[in-house]
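Give me structure tokens for this 511-residue protein.
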Amino acid sequence: MADTTREVERKYVLPGSAEGGGPPPLPDLTGAGGVTAARPEGTTELDAVYHDTSDLRLAAGHITLRRREGGHDEGWHLKFPVAPGVRDELRAPLSAELPDDLARLLRSRTRGAAVAPVVRLRTSRAITRLLGRGGRPLVELAVDAVRAERLGGSLTVTAWTEVEAELAPDADPAVLDKVDKKLRKAGLAPAPSASKLARALAETGPPAPPAGSVAEPATAGDHLLAYLREQAEAIAALDPAVRRDLPDSVHRLRVATRRARSALRSYGKILDRRVTDPIGGELRWLGGRLGVDRDTEVLGAHLRARVDALPATLLLGPVEARLRRWTAGNGARSRDLTLATLDSDRYLALLDSLDALLADPPLRRAADAAPRAVLPKAVLKEYGKLARRVEHALALPPGEERDLALHSARKAAKRVRYAAEAARPGVGKPAKRFAKRVKKVQKLLGEHQDAVVARATLREIAIQAHAAGETAFTWGLLFAREDERALAAERELPRVWAKASKHAARAALAG
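Here you go.
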């Protein structure tokens, strides 16, 4: 994987008379946020060619891909947004072609479309390093004289000068606030564009289409489609995060997948299920493949915590070594499965199907109705299915059949919660309160299922340990604790479910 750095910066435009001229005089920034000195480091010439698809899909997703010559970090740079003013920059050495590891990170956006040069920026950069005590770098202040050329059919040129303040690695972000205050006082204003590329595209036209630019939702159909767009965008945006193995990325991608599938299933009165069911089936496939990686990650962390909590006197045999082998082996296999899924043609076809659905949705008559007239009914219909499953599970004696019934109820609880979350923008507080109550039921059922899975895994590990001539005492002890964890969740369920049931009646009246 390419080298990654976290880029925290702010950009400024110059006062009117200075715009387009030579480098402006900057204010004295010593004393701002611990700055003790400002060290000029000369001027660097940068030549960057920005790449994108012909319809600017990367720019629409606020992703930047460039090949830059000049400067200490020349090479390929790929930037993903993290928060306003914060981006992750991945770097690869200078080469003629886009490196494969960067190309894979763009797959959910490009979908096989070629990336080609779209803009060339030539920048004359005058750098001043702001230093703290002991000469520690705090901020790199750059005055950039930029000349931008739109490449392709017709050459269009624009030019401007801007100031960029970038936080040094490991420096306190608060220093940017202090520097920002002095720069604004000197007449500099925040740049209207988040990046040089965005400004170059806007001024040389046509700019990148805004992501998800649609009218304010009014009907039930509008609200459902807005929710589905959020999930489709989340899937595309989280794809590179999963490939980079960022924390919680698999879980978030799996949740977006489940939310989209749940919405298609629950709101069949709005979208024709004869069209959406095949897409729902593919979403189920994706969620299932991602689930292997996520479930392994969660279970491994849980078992690790359980072992760490035991006193040394109860750790009999090579417990640590056996747990490490289990975690490493299962983790590697599940990770390979996830990456193979994201690299598959089937996955890209699913993304294309979601886009086609949103571009031409199979709306039914109820889509034109007011949100409060349609959305609550769909939520309560899902709730009815959940109620039947919970009541069935509670009527069973403890054992494997009840475990399976509770797991089925857990899946139904997720569908109810996701349906309520999808309805919330159109329905308001009743849907929000209902989703909160159902989430408690889902969480408790999830606790039970996690204990059941952990129990089964511990039994398998104990069998392996015994076969290797090791004592299985510790694994049996952990098994017993997971058994008690499952029973505790079962004992708590009637109380939590009763509260959700009462609230469901109030939600029905509010709807």
